[in-house]
Design a protein that fits this description.
Blueprint lengths: L13 E2 L2 E3 L5 E3 L6 E2 L5 H14 L7 H5 L5 H12 L10 H14 L3 H5 L7 H18 L2 E2 L4 E2 L19 H4 L7 H5 L10 H8 L5 H18 L18 H4 L7 H25 L3 H4 L2 H10 L7 H7 L14
Antiparallel strand pairs: 1-4, 2-3, 5-6
Helix pairs in contact: 4-15, 12-14
This protein binds a DNA duplex (21 and 21 nucleotides) through strand 2, helix 3, helix 6 and helix 8.
Length: about 325
DNA sequence: AAGCTCAACAACCGCCGGGTT
DNA sequence: AAACCCGGCGGTTGTTGAGCT
């Protein structure tokens, strides 16, 4: 792995970054003009780390000035979060971490922060990079669409799958519309746990990301239903989901981090357990369709995933160090 | 040795939601 | 209620080094 701290910085340049105010007009992100960009030097790292050690995290916008850094706050935050934080684990992604990433990705889609939140010591950026450079290719090589986790359409060229809409021109159309701050509100992290029906309808109509949000909303919906002790009449979502009805709107509930966490863990572990059994029984590829998807599909009406051959190959239920044991 | 290509990953960008004033 | 600030997210880009010709 390259060490950016030792990287030379020929391209380091002085510039300003911008952000938008509510009216859409660009305003300087950093008051100070002439901020540094590019790779961080060891000296900058030291300044930042020692400052945060002294004063703690937060107030990122003013932190650079207080710490004596010629960086914008965002850059400082990113550097700290992705590299300098003591809890950040460096080095190779272990097989069981990879396995967990795959399963979480199928559950959550490109929700890197959510995925990272369940893999101790790994950052969203690291997982995102690992996915884009390793796992998505691995899946494509196995004939699996990394976006949907379904078998590739034979007519679909691998280049079509490369990166999810990388062009900026496409961003508006192809970028996943966020479901009511999904990363923090809908499924995790905050206590609100609310899913907005309107928003769900919006993103369910997004062709490019249908599966992803079917998954998410189905989980969320099933989850809120579970919380509600709803009877067995959980409304199944088909592959051509039509959105959420007003009646469903009434199901919108609040969930706690702990309960969602347990729920997610149960899905993950159900799958792991099923995979182990499947390996023991040496069943065919069809049987490899893992239990997570089975459970999810049964409970929430989801489609099945297909990458179990990769996933189960890495998984050892008896491994005392397996990541699942850390997930809590 | 030089030039080229590609993989890896750190860093940047634009956008958004929540909180505060 | 509106404006603003802040932190966070996901997508994308830029830089570097390794491998190949």
């Amino acid at each position: 792995m390259r060490n950016p701290a030792t990287a030379t910085t020929p391209a380091t340049k002085l510039t300003t970054t911008t952000t938008r105010n509510n009216s859409g007009a660009k305003t300087p992100c950093c008051i100070k003009v002439g901020l540094k960009r590019g790779p961080w030097t060891p000296e900058e790292d030291e300044l930042l780390a020692s400052y945060i050690k002294r004063e703690g995290e937060g107030r990122w916008r003013t932190l650079p000035k207080r710490a004596g850094l010629l960086r914008c706050g965002k850059s400082c935050r990113l550097r700290w979060m992705n590299y300098l934080r003591p809890s950040v684990k460096r080095g190779q992604i272990a097989p069981d971490e990879e396995d967990l990433i795959l399963r979480l990705h199928r559950l959550l889609g490109n929700r890197w922060s959510l995925i990272a939140g369940r893999i101790p010591g790994r950052t969203d950026n690291e997982i995102k990079n690992y996915w884009n450079t390793h796992l998505s290719k691995k899946l494509i090589n196995q004939g699996i669409d990394p976006r949907t986790h379904k078998p590739l359409n034979p007519q679909q060229s691998p280049s079509d799958l490369k990166a999810p809409s990388s062009s900026k021109a496409n961003r508006g159309a192809a970028t996943i519309p966020k479901p009511n701050n999904p990363s923090s509100s809908s499924l995790e992290e905050t206590s609100s746990g609310q899913i907005t029906t309107h928003k769900e309808n919006e993103y369910f109509q997004s062709n490019n990301t249908l599966h992803q949000y079917q998954t998410e909303a189905a989980i969320a919906h099933g989850f809120t239903s579970l919380l509600n002790c709803e009877d067995s009449g959980i409304e199944m979502r088909s592959n051509q989901d039509q959105g959420i009805s007003n009646e469903e709107d009434e199901d919108i509930n609040y969930c706690t981090d702990d309960v969602f966490s347990s729920f997610l863990n149960s899905l993950i572990n159900e799958e792991a357990f099923a995979n182990q059994n499947q390996m023991q029984q040496q069943t065919n590829v069809t049987a490899h369709a893992d239990a997570l998807v089975s459970v999810t599909a049964t409970t929430f009406g989801l489609v099945q995933g297909w990458e179990s051959p990769i996933m189960s190959s890495n998984f050892n239920q008896n491994d005392p160090n397996r990541v699942n044991d850390h997930v809590n």
